[in-house]
Amino acid sequence: MNIKLTEHSKGGGCGCKISPAILSEILAAHNVGAKTNVKNLLVGNDSRDDAAVYQLDEKTAMISTTDFFMPIVDDAFAFGQIAAANAISDVYAMGGKPIFALAVLGWPLATLPASEAAKVMEGARKTCTEAGIVIAGGHSIDSQDPIFGLVVNGLVAIENLKRNDTAKEGDVLILTKPLGVGIMATAQKRKVLAEEDLNFLVKQLTTINKAGEALGKIKQVHAMTDVTGFGLLGHLTEMMEGSNLSASIQYNKLPIIPAVRNYIAQKTIPGATARNWSSCSAGVHFGAGIDEAEATVLLPDPQTNGGLLIAVATSSLKEVQTILQDLGIEYTSPIGECIAAKEKRIYID
């Protein structure tokens, strides 16, 4: 039986995320954004960061995060790999080292065999082994849609902790993976994605962001996050708002999946793209000559296990690029810089 997981869910990957505007409405009742007075909680609800961070002793903190979603690819083993890589990424984005994970599984047993869920778990274990951790437990339910993800715990030296709201004026910005995942995944769901493009997509989606652990040790890396469901514009907006800065981005420097424009032409645009754009558009300015029709579907495109967005002082740029290149990362050129706060948060030229 040739089972295609994406036919059994209404969404896929980080495109399942609730839009930033609606999420703000949901969390408003819980006073999210207010400073938390919990002793030893270094990062909590007072910022929109990638994970919670709790101080264990004078030198060390624990990072805790969870991420789960519906299938972004048809193959169950690959889905498990991708979901695990995406969840682990939040620990790396804080400069930390993952230590163990718990599985979160929802499976529609009436429509999909348990053997497919076993393949999902097998794929997740492969990714966890690559990250040097084990799946130590978890929880499962019978659900209407297939859902999988991990709770991941990690450790970080407090002096190496990276946040998404501590960028500094003059920092250059690097994005370590190309954009277009949501568009390509939608093309697959609509059965128009070429096989060679699917292979590229799966390779990118299953590549872990292990560089974040090494980048945590560089003092002049002032801020870091991973680009996921809110797209580049959403996560860059969070970084600039939290840091009280603006960003100047060079459109022609952005890494883009080579084939993605073919699928933009076929209008394989995920529904989350419009929601993302609506949430951040007021803070974005396009310069003359930018193809806004393309930019407004590519820049808010929801990424799954997207690249690390790094704000680093120019004095440490070469050191960061060397670390990335040694890990086989191709995308190391700056895409822009952090500038003093202006009327808009993001300027694209």
Beta strand count? 13
What is the percentage of strand-forming residues?
Answer: 15-25%
Helix and strand string, N-terminal first? HEEEHEHEEEHHHEHEHHEHEHEE
| CATH architecture descriptor of the largest domain | Alpha-Beta Complex
Stated plainly, the CATH topology of the largest domain is called Phosphoribosyl-aminoimidazole Synthetase, Chain A, domain 2
How are the strands ordered across the major sheet? 8-11-7-12-9-13-10
* CATH class group of the largest domain: Alpha Beta
Count of discrete alpha- or pi-helical segments spanning 4 or more residues: 11
Mean pLDDT over the residues: 92
Number of domains: 2
Give the N-terminus to C-terminus distance in angstroms.
50 Å
Write the CATH homologous superfamily of the largest domain: PurM-like C-terminal domain
Computed structural class = alpha+beta
Please state the CA-atom Rg, rounded to the nearest Å: 19 Å
Morphology call: globular
Please summarize the sheet with the most strands.
7 strands, mixed
